[in-house]
Amino acid sequence: MDPEDYSELIADLAPDLRPETTPVRNAAGRTTASVVTAPRAVPDFAASAMDGFALDEAALASARNGETIRVVGDTPAGHGVNVLQPGCAVRVMTGAPVPTDSEAVVPVELTDARQTGPAPYAIKIDSLPSPVPPGWNIRPIGEDMNRGDIVLPAGERITAAGVGALAMLGIGEVETLRTPRIGLIVTGDEIHGANQTGETGTEATTASIFNSNLPMLAAAARGLGAEPIEATSSDDADELLSVLTRMQAEADLVVTTGGISAGAFEVVRQALEPDHSTFRRLEMRPGSPQGYGRFGALPMIHLPGTPQGAFVAFHLFVGSLMTGQNLRQRWRKGILTGSGLRRHGNAVTFRPGTFTESGEILAADRARLPDFATADVIIRIPRATDSPQGDESLNAGTVIDYLEC
Ligand SMILES: Nc1nc2c(c(=O)[nH]1)N[C@H]1C(S)=C(S)[C@@H](COP(=O)(O)OP(=O)(O)OC[C@H]3O[C@@H](n4cnc5c(N)ncnc54)[C@H](O)[C@@H]3O)O[C@H]1N2
Ligand code: MOO
């Protein structure tokens, strides 16, 4: 099975997240639960786009004849609008409301007025465009956004600009999906000291290894806007079941690593198959053994233990569940550079890639975890049998699929 078909198969494991109200200032990284529309226009008054003088039609005509224009008001930004008497000008600052009958704002640099100090009694205008464009240097009501316009659709990850756009509209709170909690359970007796990640500086003992998957997947979960709950289990099935029982009250989705292939101590498989989970091999490398299921109502994804397999599969499958997008929709297109990439005969393969200065993608030679550490993207290499001409390799200049990582 292809990774894309598998992503579709497990799509209903996406956690069901209730909406909650979040203050806009804390909303970056959260996902909108419903569409947000503009409660008002921005700007909601006609505003000057320049420091200068607002003129009506009669004043513009006199200015063109070289006549002096009387200045009848001064409006700093944030102050109430002035009345423009016919044939006169009002000094306005950028962002200030312009008087109702204004035809244009003439920048101060085009007049004989000083840029600082009190407003002059009268100005002469040195030059004007011909013709003066209608509403020149005046931002009309709704130039940025009209009342009722969609600011953010439902399901949108809120960025810093999103926070700014909501704040610009005077929106103080937004309906977001509750932050998903991902329970991470790494398994295996060889994981040195269970929580051991190297931070204490002690050496891993013979035949044991440092735990790379747990801190790596916790970081990846946070990258998806989720809150990780970290746990480990030995190769004892009862221990794994008791960790899962605890997770039922704490997590919206559980991701396990390890213990799912063909060995004699495959704890995840032994504890969960067939009552809770299904296991299969996908036609992909790394990360071919995979599993999924439910512990009661709690959705579970089972990733392989190899760090590179866990890393790739998390981005592919957990990333799809958490964004609500099938993997097929998530691939982006890029241009391959460097030497050709060999296709695997019957499996889709993944390789770390980095963007070059010219915006092309250079693939790493190998796909071990340290090779992903400096990568920008995961490159998808289709199998040789996927190529209409049976090409054995992908050459520089080929359009490839990639996923940011
Ligand atoms: N006889 C067969 N053996 C294996 C097959 C197979 O088809 N037949 N498939 C291989 C492939 S491909 C993969 S991928 C692995 C998947 O194995 P598991 O998911 O059961 O994972 P483990 O055996 O528990 O561990 C594999 C590997 O990863 C290391 N590991 C596990 N957890 C962590 C962790 N938290 N941090 C760092 N490293 C971890 C573990 O020590 C093993 O070296 O199976 C192949 N075997
Ligand atoms: O599928 Mo496994 O290729 O070693 O990660």
UniProtKB/TrEMBL annotation:
SUPFAM superfamilies: MoeA N-terminal region -like (SSF63882), Molybdenum cofactor biosynthesis proteins (SSF53218). GO terms for molecular function: metal ion binding; molybdopterin molybdotransferase activity. It catalyses: adenylyl-molybdopterin + molybdate = Mo-molybdopterin + AMP + H(+). Its EC number is 2.10.1.1. GO terms for cellular component: cytosol. Pathway: Cofactor biosynthesis; molybdopterin biosynthesis. The keyword NAD does not apply. It is an enzyme of class 2 (transferase). GO terms for biological process: Mo-molybdopterin cofactor biosynthetic process. The keyword RNA-binding does not apply. Catalyzes the insertion of molybdate into adenylated molybdopterin with the concomitant release of AMP. This is Molybdopterin molybdenumtransferase. Its cofactor is Mg(2+). It holds the Pfam family MoCF_biosynth. Belongs to the MoeA family. Keywords: Magnesium, Metal-binding, Molybdenum, Molybdenum cofactor biosynthesis, Transferase. Residues 183-324 form the MoaB/Mog domain.
